[in-house]
Amino acid sequence: MRAQFFDGFDFAHYKYSIVAIEHPEQFFSIEGLGLHPIMYNEACLRGYTCVFGFNDDKKLTLFKLLTNNNGMEPPAIDGIAPIPFNSPSGDLKYELHHVVDYTGSILIANDFIDKYFVPFGFQLPHAFKKVFELTFYEGLFIHVENRSDDAQRLRIEYEAPVNAKKKVQMKLGSLMKKSQEYGFDDETIEQYMDLSYATKYLF
């Protein structure tokens, strides 16, 4: 497994990445759209990547979906058929205006700090300089809070889950141009696998 592609979010004329979801099980279900993607690339184990934003009514909206349907005939979504498109997520692209009825918050971020990169799973919110918390009620955008200072605090307080020996193994693997799994034991990989925006909400 490698570092994973984020879902995107268009906010205030800038591109952000979704880095945490308060209620991931309620946020988005690709199966609910009639799709059954498989892993297309190790950088996208889920087999899909989304771009969200707001519609004119300030509703949370899925605008773009990159995915695959495991070789099966893909369905139309809201009457819109996909077009062929090659990406790490698959061979299909949907251009949509699909409203998502979500209640809860998400964290979006940009301006990544390279030294906090982890090679497995999704990157953590504190690895970004700019972090915003967006809150929705039944899909309606109701509040935004700047969480950049909280991210900075976490950068100061956070202790990485990898000890010095394993950091050397990472460095050695990089220098030798080996796969990202080189030198890692199951414990290390499991730690990184857990650091996912599908399971962590830090603020």
Key structural traits:
single chain; 203 residues; alpha+beta; 2 domains; nine-stranded mixed sheet; 4 helices; 33% strand; globular
Write structural notes for this entry.
The chain has 203 residues and is of the alpha+beta class. The chain contains 4 helices and 9 strands. Strands 5-6-4-3-1-2-7-8-9 form a 9-stranded mixed β-sheet, with helices on one face. Helices cover 17% and strands 33% of the residues. Strand 5 (83-87) and strand 6 form a beta hairpin. The radius of gyration is 18 Å and the shape is globular. It has 2 domains: 29-99, no CATH class; 104-194, no CATH class.
Describe the secondary structure blueprint for this structure.
Elements: E1 8-11, E2 14-21, H1 24-27, E3 48-54, E4 60-67, E5 83-87, E6 90-99, E7 104-112, E8 128-137, E9 140-146, H2 148-157, H3 164-175, H4 186-194
Mass-distribution shape: globular
Number of helices: 4
Mean pLDDT: 84
What level of helicity do the residues show?
A: 10-25%
Which ranges are low-confidence, i.e. pLDDT below 50, for 5 or more consecutive residues? Answer: 178-182
Please provide the count of β strands: 9
- Written as H for each helix and E for each strand, in order along the chain, the element string is EEHEEEEEEEHHH
* Fraction of residues in β-strands: 25-35%
Task: Please state the CA-atom Rg, rounded to the nearest Å.
Answer: 18 Å
Structural class: alpha+beta
- Order of strands, main sheet, comes to 5-6-4-3-1-2-7-8-9
- For this entry, what is the oligomeric state of its chains? single chain
Q: Sheet bearing the most strands, described? A: 9 strands, mixed
Number of domains: 2
- N- and C-termini, Cα separation: 27 Å
